[in-house]
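[job 4471] stage=fold_predict status=RUNNING
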Amino acid sequence: MGREMHVLQDAFSRLPGLVRGVVDDLSIDELAFRLDAESNTIGWLVWHLTRIQDDHIAGAAGGAQVWTSDGWAERFALPFDRSATGYGQSADDVGAVRADASLLADYFDAVYARSTQFIDRLGEADLDRIVDTRFDPPVTLGVRLVSVLADDLEHVGQAALIRGVVLRRR
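[job 4471] inference complete, writing structure tokens
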């Protein structure tokens, strides 16, 4: 296995600790805390970053999303379409994501397990495979994986900042 694959595996392997670190020991109300009426919550950010990873990896792998195939949509029981990933959602939608830390972390872990199974099977040549032709230039698998990773890191960082505010308010 080449260096690029090891780098991707290492980068993705850092996510579970970061995600658990932002949700652990927070109540549902703390996970739903907002810096202002329009801001995202820790719970929504973790749900959204997980939904994006689930959606994009399933699409690249040509398989089903963990969200729908493994019953997570039913466990979360959110008041919007099962296909929602959080992209373009309103402030009201953000506020509707109320879940406990265990549910959020367990869903992330399930998606992470599926993602790493997929990534572990890849070879260097797979990274050049086109996975999305809606863009110019078309998106390769390598670019898609980096995009998912960047989105996850951005949102877990936002959640960590909000966590810091929550902990100061205790």
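[job 4471] summary: The chain has one domain: 3-79+91-169.
[job 4471] exit 0
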